[in-house]
Design a protein that fits this description.
This protein is of the alpha+beta class. It folds into three domains: about 1-120, Beta Barrel (Lipocalin), CATH 2.40.128; about 140-230, Quinohemoprotein amine dehydrogenase alpha subunit, domain 2 (Lipocalin); about 240-410, 3-Layer(aba) Sandwich (Glutaredoxin). Helix content is about 15%, strand content about 40%. The chain is built from five helices and 25 strands. The chain has helices spanning about 1-15, 285-300, 320-335, 350-355, 390-410; strands at about 25-35, 40-50, 55-60, 65, 70-75, 75-80, 85-90, 100-105, 110-120, 140-145, 150-160, 165-170, 175, 180-185, 185-195, 200-205, 210-220, 220-230, 255, 265, 275-280, 305-315, 340, 370, 380-385. Strand 11 (about 150-160) and strand 12 (about 165-170) form a beta hairpin. It is globular and about 60 Å long.
């Protein structure tokens, strides 16, 4: 009987019968990855079979991440995330659930981290509950508390419609991209999952202008308490993640291999008399993903004007082959036409700046962008990137970036 039920289920979900293969069949799930403390970071995803072609979508508010590498063999499921070192290995159970592991690449000695993964068909991201007591839409000044008890500031943007809640949070060196969740009575819950980020936020809503008892749960064991006050003028001080040229330096000096192993230097002819954007990034970094998506399109549209872009990658590993594989996937996903170089220095190396760009003070954030004028002099350094999930913050960042580049091109 169990085998007959499984056969029926696979036919419904993946269209394994001739009739099903003539049309697109989808099934929605609530996925979850389990942290060390047992808390679940939940997210929505959809499995699709379209005329025998299997793929999936992970959904976070306005974001849909398409997964093309989906394989089903018997009762086994394998989904390879499109950008990061990240994959799901699971099996279909007789009751329709999916159980297995989320395997994520890391910079640890082990190289990878395993989370328990489970998916329930037809379940919402967060269950509904008591009607909201307040509407928390707007901008908020947030104070997060690090593990060492020091404070760090953030700005949250929330949009509440009934009990449904979306938004983002912006810190001095990044944003937490597309958050989606719910308001139940006097409590709020938000989550996001993109193959690298796995974040869960919860807090008590005291009223429509204060939050308390908040927790920001990040990854396998991260937990930072937070509180927040509504403030339409809240902002992030730029100097908290700032990077500068050291005294006595005007230019960068570097030479690293590209994805084909060919050495590329900032002194190469392709960069001469050009405005150059040097992107410090990593293929493990969701904010780098957002910046690369923007830069790839910008470069295609503006390279004839005299601008060049080059990426310097700080990967999870010093192993060239592993870094090459991850960056190649990154390059292909965003159709990057400019050089992507492998520094060979791990992102968690405390001497990463000294080993790669000793002309700079400590690199605190990924991505960080260094804008160089036609004479090869560093003119602007921008730490972090606020992506499309931040709405107007993102549009303002792009306006300022384009204004700076336009000014340098006119010189």
């Amino acid at each position: 009987m169990k085998h007959l039920f499984l056969l029926f289920l696979y036919c419904q979900v993946f269209a394994l019968c001739a009739h099903c293969q003539k049309k697109s069949v989808t099934r929605d799930y609530r996925g979850s990855v389990e942290r060390e403390d047992g808390r679940l970071v939940v997210f929505d995803f959809t499995l699709v079979d379209s005329a025998g072609k299997k793929f999936a979508f992970i959904k976070n508010a306005d974001e849909k991440i398409r997964i093309d590498e989906v394989s089903v063999k018997g009762d086994s499921l394998l989904m390879q995330m499109p950008v990061f070192e990240s994959q799901f290995k699971a099996v279909f159970d007789a009751d329709g659930t999916i159980n297995g592991q989320w395997i994520k690449g890391t910079a640890t000695a082990a190289g990878f981290q395993n989370y328990r993964f489970m998916a329930l068909p037809g379940k919402p991201r967060f269950e509904s509950g008591a009607p909201p007591h307040s509407n928390i839409s707007g901008r908020w000044a947030v104070t997060l508390v690090r593990p060492d008890s020091s404070n760090r500031p953030a700005v949250a943007e929330f949009n509440q419609k009934g009990s449904q809640l979306t938004g983002t949070m912006i810190t001095p060196n990044s944003d937490y991209r597309f958050l989606e969740g719910v308001v139940r009575g006097d409590s709020m819950f938000l989550s996001t999952f993109d193959g690298a980020h796995s974040y869960l936020f919860s807090a008590k809503i005291n009223n429509d202008s204060t939050l308390s008892g908040g927790h920001y749960y990040a990854g396998f064991r991260g937990d930072e308490p937070f509180s927040a006050v509504k403030n339409s003028k809240a902002f992030i001080p730029e100097d908290l993640s700032a990077v500068y040229l050291k005294s006595g330096f005007e230019k960068l000096d570097f030479k690293f291999p590209d994805l084909d192993g060919k050495s590329v230097s900032i002194h190469d002819q392709r960069f001469a008399n050009k405005v150059v954007l040097v992107q410090l990034m990593g293929s493990w970094c969701p904010n780098c993903m957002d910046e690369t998506a923007f830069l790839s399109k910008y470069y295609k549209a503006n390279r004839k004007r005299g601008i060049e872009v080059v990426s310097l990658a700080y990967e999870n590993s010093t192993d060239f082959a592993r870094s090459q594989k991850s960056l190649r996937k990154f390059q292909q996903r965003f159709m990057v036409d400019y050089p992507m170089l492998i520094t060979g220095v791990s992102v968690n190396d405390t001497l990463r700046t000294e080993k790669t760009l000793p002309q700079l003070t400590r690199i605190k954030a990924f991505p960080t962008s260094v804008l160089i004028d036609k004479k090869g002099k560093v003119r602007y350094i921008s730490a972090g990137f606020v992506g499309p999930g931040t709405g107007e913050h993102y549009r303002e960042y792009i306006r300022e970036f384009e204004h700076r580049v336009d000014g340098l091109l006119k010189e």
